[in-house]
Amino acid sequence: MKTNSLQYDFLKRVRVSVIYRDVFLLVFIIPCILSILLAYLSGKSERILNRILCFSGGVSVFWIGLVLASDLGFRMLQSDPDATNAAFNHTAPVGALLFGWLPASIFCSIIYLMTWIPKQIRKSKGLA
Question: 0.90 exceeded by the pTM?
Answer without folding.
Answer: no
